[in-house]
Design a protein that fits this description.
Layout: H1 2-10, E1 12-18, E2 22-28, H2 33-40, E3 47-51, E4 54-55, E5 69-75, H3 91-95, H4 112-124
Parallel strand pairs: 1-5
Antiparallel strand pairs: 1-2, 3-4, 3-5
């Protein structure tokens, strides 16, 4: 912070500007980003100046960035093109018919519980009757 104050007292500060190569320039505290563009860039409309990844407006004052700051000057990137038409987005989901949710069936017992039920059915509650043995699916 003390370095920053000393630079402001001198009314000049040093900036590093990264284009194709690194430039070291001295600027006054009242100069703006557009002044740096005029010094280093050829085509001003196709150039964007960034500081720490954020684009800077042309009227931004360089003294607010602090001394020994690095600015990046690069060309604008084309963007905004979308592959395919968005008019057909969600087409398949819209075409599929809505099916009502099925009620949950009672799940089968497994493991120890199943063996216990099986034992009780076969041996524990079995009453000895005369005649032929009934099968497990007979309801009589």
């Amino acid at each position: 912070y003390n370095e920053y104050k000393s630079y402001l007292r001198n009314n000049t500060m040093q900036l590093f500007v990264q284009t194709d190569e690194l430039h070291c320039i001295n600027v006054e505290e009242h100069q703006t980003v557009s002044d740096v563009k005029d010094q280093l860039a050829r085509d001003l409309s196709e150039v964007v100046v960034t500081h720490e990844g954020r684009p800077l407006a042309d009227d931004a004052v360089l003294a607010l960035l602090g001394p020994n700051t690095t600015l990046n000057i690069s060309g604008k990137l084309l963007g905004g093109k979308v592959h395919g038409s968005l008019a057909r987005a969600g087409k398949v989901k819209g075409q599929t018919p809505k099916v009502a949710k099925q009620e949950d069936k009672k799940k089968k017992k497994t493991g120890r519980c199943k063996r216990r039920i099986q034992y009780n059915r076969r041996f524990a509650t079995n009453v000895n009757t005369f005649g032929r043995k009934k099968g497990p699916n007979s309801n009589s």
